[in-house]
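Q: Predict the assembly, please.
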Amino acid sequence: MFHSRQYQFTDLLASYLRMNEKVLERQKRMKFSCFYQTNQFFQATLAWLAVVVLPFGIKAESIDNRFALVLPAETEEAWRAVGWRTNLMEAREVAQKQNRPIFLWIMVGNPQGCT
Amino acid sequence: MVQRTMDEGLSSRNGSKLSGQRPGSSDLDLNRQMAQSKDPQGMYIFGADGTPYGFANDHDPEDIEKLMDLGLKRFQARPPRPVEISDIEKNTAFGVRPPPTAQVLQVFARIPSPPETSTPLNKGVGRDFCWIYENERQEVAQLAGRGEKFAMPTTISRRIARFHLVDGVRGTPNMWWSDEVKSLHLVATPVGPGQLTLSGDFTLRSRDGRRGYFGKIEGSLTFDPETLEWTRVRLLADGKAFGAGTYTPNQPTGSYRLLVGLLDTDLPEARIVPPEEVATQNRDTRYKSP
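A: Predicted assembly structure:
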């Protein structure tokens, strides 16, 4: 649980609490009351820390996860399948060779975005 | 071609929910559009010799399909004349291109989980390109070589702040004037040969106080110590934005989370499509020295 790979804080907390619940159950059965009471106190403290500390800006999401939110989804890149040309004169040449009309998209701004 | 489209009255005025216009609306006519704003933007169908076959300024998929069907019929009824297209015409650049030694990054903007009550455009992704000039990469490498934390070159941090920390999700965004950059810090920490982690914060606010964006910026940068090429860039701005831009109304109400990410790219169009600021100004003078 505490190895060097980056964990989200909430995942870490949840893992500890789940593990601790199993420990508490075992302790109840074995009636190690002193340890059981101490562990309960520690679990309550940890939960309190989560409630207090998390709102104070500990990043719950890794930068990789947040960066992934920004990137276009596959459906948002479907326009690339059209095979757009970026040179109008080359497009005229191809259109003439293939006997096809040209579809031209003029935009004030970047047609690939900022639109 | 635009003029001929106007002369022959070839606007397809289909109308759609997307445009908010009814079929036949004169607002969808190119002639009216040019008269109002000298703005030729839209979709054109034409032949290699410039013969026009149709125009529409609407993004509804059904409207575009109708335009293409109509344009194709007209093309078949009146095919274009053969023309010669010279190499000079093919090799002449249409817009400002990055200097051959500049590196280009891709930029994306996103409002994660916009409120369901906000307009659908808030679910989109804003796109742009960012240029990093050769002398700037040299300066970063030099500073990194000292092995200590350093402030990223001002031209880089201010360029990113003024021209890329913008809400381009719904349309062409307003850039920030120089005095609208209220605070900006971008610090690099060397963590290995050619490897930097980046962190900082920013506050941007328009002169009238009605539009703003503030938050943290963090990421990593890897460069080749030999060529100084930035081989991997991940830079993320995460903050709160508020207010509408001139062409980007209907933002979520109040303040909303806005993410802007910059990353390395090898897309071929990155060497052809200039950053929005450069395209608007038709030069990179202000962009290079923000």
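DSSP finds four helices and one strand in chain A. The radius of gyration of chain A is 29 Å.
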